[in-house]
What we know:
single chain, 70 residues, elongated, 3 helices, mainly alpha, two-stranded antiparallel ribbon
Amino acid sequence: KHEMHMGRRAPVPIPVIRRHSHYLQHIRMLTEQGKEWVSSLELADALDLTSSTVRQDLSYPDDRGTAQPG
């Protein structure tokens, strides 16, 4: 889980924020191609990351720990 600071979650690190813009850009391209969902592995391969990094990055907005369809 993400670090807690004084009872609140720590701020999202800048590298994670930067990668979010890359995720969004890639997902928009896939949407234009008619794709309705994408896995963390597909995003990772397309953006030269690990699927673990993608899952961790995308868990910041929703930290429930459950898989969410993309």
